[in-house]
Amino acid sequence: MAIITPTNKEVLNFQGLHLYHSGVSNCSMRVRMTLDEKRLPWTSHHLNILKKEHVTPEYFGINPNGLVPTLVHDGKVIIESDDIIDYLDKEFPNPALRPVNVQCLDTMYKWLHRATEIHLPAVKPYIYFKRVGASMALSEEEDKKYESLQSNPDLKAFHQKSTNEGFSKEDIESAVHILDECFSDMNSLLGSSSWLAGDEFSLADIAWAPLHFTLDKMAGYDFEPYKEVSDWMRRLRERDSYRTAIIDYWPAEMGGT
């Protein structure tokens, strides 16, 4: 569990659920979906990452990676979206977003962790290469500011490629290979169950729904070969949380939904 001690002590006094998030962030979408599915009241701290509102000493003092989302619950600070939604489901167990069956629970965690594992090597490079890069480009001053705040070596390396060096052909081919393999496996799995962890909607579905949305909406990833995945997405779009957590927060400057 990614519970941290922030250097920005202001948040330690927060009561209730507070979420730092962004409309365009697929990781933020996961947390908003979880909060909505559980009908939990929460206080919004929205950051427009397209305008670099997260690149400040104040926010890096809350989340040392400078990423969204960050959850603060009664002064406890939790980063990493998979940890956050798992925490929320354990802390607020009704309604449950995890299967009772042990095998299905293992499957849920497998897909929950897989969504996180592919984010930096595949999802972010593909989306930045296809769409976001130009809108997220930093000025020289902004670039220096980010470098001074960021200490995570993996995020520093990604930043260099996304804003300065550019992604190589090999980088994008690797990203596509990872994505194709994931959605092929998902398609096979959904051929025998309604949801990713069996016949019950779970955190696994919440983890992957925003990835599908952003890869489709922002990067034009080809989902045509994956019929079962497309049917799964149609079921997801019928849930209220899909509209309130994803559609309602989608920024107009990124195009209509």
Give me the Rg, rounded.
18 Å
Number of helices in the DSSP assignment: 11
| CATH architecture label name of the largest domain | Up-down Bundle
Counted beta strands? 5
Mean pLDDT: 93
- Our estimate of the beta-strand percent is 5-15%
As laid out across the biggest beta sheet, the strand order is: 1-5-4-2-3
- The helicity comes to 40-55%
- Under CATH at level 1, the class of the largest domain stands as Mainly Alpha
Label the overall shape: globular
What is the domain tally? 2
Architecture overview:
The structure is a single chain. The protein has helices at residues 26-37, 57-60, 81-91, 102-117, 119-136, 140-149, 153-165, 169-189, 203-219, 227-237, 240-247, and strands at 3-4, 17-21, 43-46, 70-73, 76-79. The model has no long low-confidence stretch (mean pLDDT 93). Strand 2, helix 1 and strand 3 (43-46) form a beta-alpha-beta unit. Helix content is 55%, strand content 7%. It has two domains: 3-91, Glutaredoxin; 102-241, Up-down Bundle (Glutathione S-transferase Yfyf (Class Pi), Chain A, domain 2), CATH 1.20.1050.10. Strands 1-5-4-2-3 form a five-stranded mixed sheet, with helices on one face. The two termini are 34 Å apart. Helix 1 (26-37) packs antiparallel against helix 11 (240-247). It is globular. The chain contains eleven helices and five strands. The chain is an alpha+beta fold and 257 residues long.
